[in-house]
Amino acid sequence: MDSTRSNNTIKRSVMIAGHATSITLEPEFWNKLKEIAAIDNVSLNSLITKIDADKDRENLSSAVRVFILKRLCGE
Predict the structure, then answer these.
(1) Residue 44's domain is classified under what CATH number?
(2) Does the structure show a pLDDT above 60 at 1?
(3) pLDDT at residue 41, as a whole number
(4) Which of 9, 37, 46, 67 is 20 to 30 Å from the Cα of 54, by its Cα?
(5) Number of domains in the chain
(6) pTM of the complete model
(7) Domain containing 67: what range?
């Protein structure tokens, strides 16, 4: 997983369904996403792939943020 940092966000490339895409999140969201993946005992890439498959919005970065918020709220 490649990453670059710009301002207060980190952009990472991930593989989803055999193609590369990028996600830009603030470090706090990346950290929480890693924690959730560890709790669920899945790789970060697997978790992002699941979020992508279940998303109801076009933007994957937004879908990841909403997923994290829902997990934190117990949904």
Answers:
(1) 1.10.3990.20
(2) no
(3) 98
(4) 9
(5) 1
(6) 0.84
(7) 3-72
Give residue-wise pLDDT tens across range 29-52. 999 999 999 999 999 999 999 999
- Binned at pLDDT 50, 70 and 90, residue 5 comes out as low
Q: Please, which contacts does 60-65 make with residues 24 or more away whose CB atoms are closer than 8 Å? A: 60/21, 60/23, 61/23, 61/24, 61/25, 64/23, 64/25, 64/29, 64/33, 65/25, 65/29
Long-range contacts, 57-66 (Cβ 8 Å, 24+): 60/21, 60/23, 61/23, 61/24, 61/25, 64/23, 64/25, 64/29, 64/33, 65/25, 65/29
